[in-house]
Amino acid sequence: MLKKAIAVTLLITTVFTHPVIFKNGKVFWVSQNPNFSDIRLGVSKKNNWLIGVRVLEDRKSNDVFALLNNNFLIKRNNILNSQSNLYLLSSVGLNTENSKAMATVGIHGDWENRNFMVMEMFEYFSHNSSWVSNTRLAYSPFVVDYSKVSTWFIAQYRVEYSKNDFSYLFIPIIRLYKKNYLIELGSNGKESFLSFMTHF
């Protein structure tokens, strides 16, 4: 029963950033998009709180930050055959070049069932005073069990507001995951997206 509960938890929480996983579970995550390269290692101290370390590179400015990372599950609703989650996200640390303080704060919300997912994540980055919105709509045409490869087709739309500048980016993404391994690959012909994640 415990193994089944853990498997279901892993399957359900494999949505985007894995803000929180099962208690004492660890997560390693590498992500690269046109704006940031992001490496994270974390552990869920409770079933609603993940803490870890993060190395974040701003690919536009080439600034690199070493950060402590916190993700907190505010609310989870389990509905018949679906689930919704609301998370508070934060990071605090230093620029590795000049030791200048840097912080991020954000909120993440999602709803999903076995075929559809909707997600919104809104974050603030202090080093460049930017607000970033990431929206995802996803569809999985095949419902499979935990031991098989799950395939999702994702439409991701990113909007950034920074110092009166506005930019947006649309990238189609394919996600493949099996058991505790996930990979996402995306491209719009000009820009690309890559993410790899594992739980242990």
Low-confidence segments, given as residue ranges, are 1-17
Shape: globular
Helix amount, in percent? under 10%
Largest sheet: 12 strands, antiparallel, barrel
β content, as a range?
over 45%
Q: In order across it, which strands form the biggest sheet?
A: 1-2-3-4-5-6-7-8-9-10-11-12
The ordered H/E elements are HEEEEEEEEEEEE
Radius of gyration: 17 Å
The CA-CA distance between the termini, in Å, is 19 Å
Overall structural class, as computed from helix and strand content, comes to: mainly beta
Number of helices: 1
Mean of the pLDDT scores?
89
Secondary structure tally: strands: 12
Walk me through what this model shows.
The chain has 200 residues and is mainly beta. 6% of the residues lie in helices and 66% in strands. It contains one helix and twelve strands. The protein has one helix spanning 2-13, and strands at 26-32, 36-46, 49-58, 64-79, 82-95, 101-112, 116-125, 130-139, 150-162, 165-178, 181-187, 192-199. Strands 1-2-3-4-5-6-7-8-9-10-11-12 form a twelve-stranded antiparallel β-barrel. Strand 1 (26-32) and strand 2 form a beta hairpin. It is globular and about 50 Å long. The two termini are 19 Å apart. The model is unreliable at 1-17 (pLDDT under 50).
Which labels suit this protein?
200 residues, 6% helix, 66% strand, globular
